[in-house]
From TrEMBL:
Pfam families: PAP2 (PF01569)
Keywords in alphabetical order: Membrane, Transmembrane, Transmembrane helix
Organism: Methanothermobacter wolfeii
UniProt protein name: Phosphatase PAP2 family protein
Transmembrane segments annotated in the record for this chain: 6-24, 31-53, 73-91, 98-117, 123-141
Keyword Transmembrane helix: yes
Keyword Transmembrane: yes
SMART domains: acidPPc
Phosphatidic acid phosphatase type 2/haloperoxidase domain segment(s): 31-138
InterPro entries: PAP2/HPO, PAP2/HPO_sf
């Protein structure tokens, strides 16, 4: 599960989107752009909500949950799940394979539960926020293309 949960980290997404942008075609470059936008919005939203809600993590409240990792901060919502759903769903808009990407994002959410760092409601909220962020990124991508502010055609 620690390997799966890595797909919800910023470093995973920076590396993945960089590789996609370097070696991908036109659609892949747009997908990487949308994923980064979704991740930035998702990070800001999740961190704001964590501070506002200030919910302790399960392993801090329940003695029978043992966690040996380095999770800190508050629990609600799951930032890893926000990143996974925001990133993977954004990729699916341009690259297809939606079921595969949603399955990957869901596994990240399940890994957060398994590791004892989130409640089910944290993961559900993270998934909803990630989905919302991916749709916002899709709209931003459409607007950027519409106004000609970013010329993806030159990247072909």
């Amino acid at each position: 599960m620690p390997v799966i949960t890595f797909a919800g980290t910023q470093i995973f997404w920076v590396i993945l989107c960089s590789l996609i942008y370097l070696f991908g075609d036109h659609e892949a470059k747009e997908a990487a752009f949308m994923a980064i936008v979704a991740l930035m919005i998702g990070f800001l939203l999740s961190e704001l909500l964590k501070v506002m809600i200030a919910r302790p993590r399960p392993y801090e409240v329940m003695e029978w949950i043992r966690y040996s990792g380095a999770a800190g901060g508050y629990s609600m919502p799951s930032g890893h799940t926000v990143a996974a759903f925001g990133g993977f769903l954004s990729l699916s808009f341009k690259l297809g394979r939606t079921a595969l990407f949603i399955a990957a994002a869901s596994l990240v959410g399940i890994s957060r539960l398994y590791l004892g760092v989130h409640y089910p409601s944290d993961v559900a909220a993270g998934a909803l926020i990630g989905i919302l962020c991916s749709f916002i990124a899709l709209r931003i991508n459409e607007r950027v293309k519409c106004f000609g502010l970013c010329r993806f055609e030159m990247l072909k």
